[in-house]
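Researcher: Let's continue the batch. This sequence belongs to Thioesterase family protein, and it's 145 residues. Same format as the previous ones, please.
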Amino acid sequence: MTSFSKQLSLRWSDLDPNFHVRHSAYYDFGAQHRIEILESLGLTMKILQQNHFGPILFREECIFRKEIKLSDKIVMQTKVSKMKPDASRWSIVHEFLNEENKLCAVITVDGAWMDTKLRKIADPTPEIAVQAISHFPKSEDFMQL
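Model: Same format as before. Here are the structure tokens for Thioesterase family protein:
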């Protein structure tokens, strides 16, 4: 697998007054896709709650390359671009591609795993998180931190 892929379903509420996808909708699509991926890898909300940890973001950035309109068919591809060997810190990239396979936007998030009881970075990283994120496809420019 080269990436996790998802066909987006754009909604009227995702548009801004200029009739293209509003900036904050991109972040919503990325967040939803990350959670769906974690669920597919066995890190369900129930597992996260039972084990008292979850993902936390330090940075979220979007680069907009080409506007997306309501009728566009968009596929989002998600990969890990950076990660520490113990999976304690990571970066995930979401690429938004149109029907012509042209890049419309890129979201990059930097994150870690948080202990939800201590409200601090989980140390050590829970093994189930290490196993799950190790199954993420890696970007072409993947870098070990």
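Researcher: Any comment?
Model: The mean pLDDT is 95.
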